[in-house]
């Protein structure tokens, strides 16, 4: 009796499984609903932020290959094109990306530039994206007559990326073998601990006039960069006074005296001679009329 019951249950289960399989074959499930994707309404050049008036929506079947990687309308708005997009072309993940992935920051009014420096002059090489920094420029002196100088190039500048001198992202490099150590695998050198690669290439985002001043100072004027983390107050630097240097005075010689030439008197012309009594010098006492004015002395009776 028990064996007959168990056999009957097994037959019923088998028939139920066959019925379910046949149903799945004969009754097709409903297809997934179609998708609405964004396509370009006009030609969109590369490096362009996509606005709503550049797009239109089309509906495609869910199994359409275009629907697999295409953005919908809301997703595509605000993206930046990474290649030219033709009118009617779906906006996919290969044609447009978030602005931050293309140019670090979403604000298109900021320019992006990089500069390098010694890691010990870059806050110990520990700069991180998102920091605000002050950029100083310094020029080493060349002796007593050239003491060098320091200028504040820009302040409160936004750091968007940092790199090691090799160009790789500042972070943990592969372990390096310690000098003179051995005993590793197959007698190779022992690998030391891991440490962060110091940042020595800094990428910043700033207004165009600030970027111009950075390039002018570090490029044209050959200042070297020294970076500090910005504080809450803007520092107004005072130029370092130049040391007093003794300068040997120069003397200008007196002009050479040149005597005036002695005038040459001309012979009197023929004719009646006239004698003119010269006027006495200024301040001299008048002399009695008829007495000589020069030579001898006056004497009384």
Written overview of the protein:
The chain is an alpha+beta fold. Among the domains are: about 35-100, Alpha-Beta Complex (Type Iii Antifreeze Protein Isoform Hplc 12), CATH 3.90.1210.10; about 110-175 and about 195-230. It has five helices and nine strands; from the N terminus they run αββααββαββββαβ. The protein has helices spanning about 1-25, 65-70, 75, 100-105, 210-220, and strands spanning about 35-40, 55-60, 80, 95, 110-115, 130-145, 145-165, 200-205, 225-230. A five-stranded antiparallel β-sheet has the order 5-8-7-6-9. A two-stranded antiparallel ribbon has the order 1-2. It is elongated, with a radius of gyration of 50 Å.
Q: Secondary-structure blueprint of this entry?
A:
Blueprint: H1 2-26, E1 35-40, E2 55-60, H2 65-69, H3 73-76, E3 80-81, E4 96-97, H4 99-103, E5 111-116, E6 132-143, E7 146-163, E8 201-206, H5 208-220, E9 224-229
Antiparallel strand pairs: 1-2, 3-4, 5-8, 6-7, 6-9, 7-8
Q: Structural class of the helix and strand makeup?
A: alpha+beta
Kindly state the number of beta strands: 9
Number of helical segments with 4 or more residues: 5
Contiguous uncertain segments of 5+ residues? 179-186, 240-247, 290-301
**Major sheet attributes:** 5 strands, antiparallel
Query: Could you tell me how far the N terminus lies from the C terminus, measured between alpha carbons in angstroms?
Result: 201 Å
Order of helices and strands: HEEHHEEHEEEEHE
How much β-strand is present in the residues?
15-25%
Over all CA atoms, what is the radius of gyration?
50 Å
For the largest sheet, list the strands in their spatial order. Answer: 5-8-7-6-9
Give the overall shape, derived from the CA principal axes. elongated
Indicate the percent of residues in helices.
Answer: 10-25%
Q: What's the overall average pLDDT, rounded?
A: 77
């Amino acid at each position: 009796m028990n064996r007959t019951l168990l056999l009957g249950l097994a037959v019923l289960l088998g028939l139920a499984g066959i019925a379910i399989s046949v149903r799945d074959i004969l009754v097709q499930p409903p297809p997934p609903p179609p998708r609405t994707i964004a396509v370009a309404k006009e030609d969109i050049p590369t490096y362009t932020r996509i606005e709503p008036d550049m797009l239109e929506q089309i509906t495609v079947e869910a199994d359409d290959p275009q629907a697999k990687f295409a953005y919908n309308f809301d997703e595509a708005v605000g993206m930046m094109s990474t290649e030219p997009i033709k009118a009617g072309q779906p906006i996919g993940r290969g044609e447009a990306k978030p602005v931050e992935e293309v140019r670090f920051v979403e604000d298109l009014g900021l320019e992006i530039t990089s500069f390098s420096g010694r890691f010990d002059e870059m806050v110990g090489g520990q700069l991180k994206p998102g920091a605000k920094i002050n950029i100083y420029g310094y020029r080493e002196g060349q002796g007593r007559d050239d003491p060098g100088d320091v200028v504040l190039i820009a302040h409160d500048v936004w750091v968007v990326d940092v790199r090691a001198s090799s160009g790789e992202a500042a972070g943990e490099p592969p372990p390096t073998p310690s000098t003179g150590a051995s005993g590793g695998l197959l007698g190779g050198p022992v690998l030391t601990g891991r440490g962060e690669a110091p940042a020595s290439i800094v990428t910043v985002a700033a207004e165009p006039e600030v970027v111009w001043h950075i390039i002018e100072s570090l490029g044209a004027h050959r200042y070297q960069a020294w970076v500090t983390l910005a504080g809450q107050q803007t520092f107004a630097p005072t130029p370092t006074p130049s040391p007093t240097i003794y300068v040997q005075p120069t003397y200008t010689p007196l002009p050479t005296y040149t005597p005036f030439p002695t005038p040459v008197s001309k012979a009197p012309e023929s004719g009646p001679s006239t004698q003119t009594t010269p006027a006495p010098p200024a301040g001299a006492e008048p002399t009695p009329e008829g007495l000589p004015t020069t030579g001898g002395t006056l004497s009384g009776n």
